């Protein structure tokens, strides 16, 4: 939660910074996008370095929250966005070599900067758009108290990886407010052993609103 508060503070600072920038660049659009939706891992979670067992029941879907700040210039196809998506908690079951099972909870925070590409001219009220960018993705793990040392040793308390981000969205314009729907994938490589890694895909299906600030 501390990481989420830090991101919220950074976004608030970005909004304050965007106000004088929008005044200096006539026509610059500044929007904030709160989002809520569903998280679904698209690939199995691999055990961390020197794992001593295996995941026997992989993560399921869970609630996701997001917030972004977007800058755009009217009558152009490009915009830029900075924001985060947060997974509130996804459970999985891990078994060590002694067949001891433990249930763990994984949260995830992804922070990225994106280029936003929209068609010109706008398609009446509905407008599709593409997202492409990069950032960091942080996994945090917590095990039940009686998980056992071998089980807990297989996973770090947290892991932060570089991530690519790609998505597709659509908004329904209602003046300064627009309804939005997005599907996106955070693509990273999770370490599974010495000099080894596995591609990890984390999908988000989000809905929200885009509020024009300036």
Task: Give a verbal description of the structure.
- The protein has one domain (2-212): Porin, CATH 2.40.160.
- The protein has helices at residues 2-24, 149-153; strands at residues 29-41, 53-57, 62-72, 78-96, 101-117, 126-143, 158-174, 177-193, 196-212.
- Strands 1-3-4-5-6-7-8-9 form an 8-stranded antiparallel beta barrel.
- It has 2 helices and 9 strands; from the N terminus they run αββββββαβββ.
- It is 13% helix and 63% strand.
- With 214 residues, the protein is mostly beta strands.
Observed structural traits:
214 residues, mainly beta, Porin, 8-stranded antiparallel beta barrel, 2 helices, 13% helix
Secondary structure elements and pairings:
Layout: H1 2-24, E1 29-41, E2 53-57, E3 62-72, E4 78-96, E5 101-117, E6 126-143, H2 149-153, E7 158-174, E8 177-193, E9 196-212
Antiparallel strand pairs: 1-3, 1-9, 2-4, 3-4, 4-5, 5-6, 6-7, 7-8, 8-9
Proportion in β-strands: over 45%
Rg over C-alpha atoms, rounded to the nearest angstrom: 20 Å
With strands numbered from the N-terminus, the spatial order across the biggest sheet is 1-3-4-5-6-7-8-9
Q: Can you tell me the number of structural domains?
A: 1
Q: Could you give the distance between the termini?
A: 29 Å
Q: What is the 3D shape?
A: elongated
């Amino acid at each position: 939660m501390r990481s989420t508060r830090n991101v919220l503070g950074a976004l608030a600072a970005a909004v304050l910074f965007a106000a004088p920038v929008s005044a200096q660049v006539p026509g610059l659009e500044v929007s904030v996008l709160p989002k809520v939706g569903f998280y679904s891992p698209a690939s199995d979670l691999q055990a961390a370095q020197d794992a001593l067992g295996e995941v026997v029941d992989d993560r399921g879907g869970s609630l996701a929250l997001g917030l972004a700040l977007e800058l755009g210039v009217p009558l152009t196809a490009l915009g830029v966005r900075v924001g985060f998506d947060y997974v509130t908690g996804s459970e999985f079951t891990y078994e060590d070599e002694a067949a001891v099972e433990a249930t763990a909870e994984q949260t995830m925070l992804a922070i990225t900067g994106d280029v936003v590409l929209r068609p010109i001219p706008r398609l009446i009220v509905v407008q599709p758009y593409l997202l492409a960018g990069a950032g960091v993705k942080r996994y945090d793990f917590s095990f039940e108290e009686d998980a056992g040392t071998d089980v807990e040793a297989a996973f770090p308390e947290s892991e932060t990886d570089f991530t690519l981000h790609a998505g597709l969205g659509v908004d329904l314009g209602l003046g300064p407010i627009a309804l939005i729907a997005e599907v996106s994938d955070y693509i990273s490589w999770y370490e599974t052993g010495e000099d080894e890694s596995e591609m990890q895909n984390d999908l988000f299906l989000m809905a929200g609103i885009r509020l024009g600030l300036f």
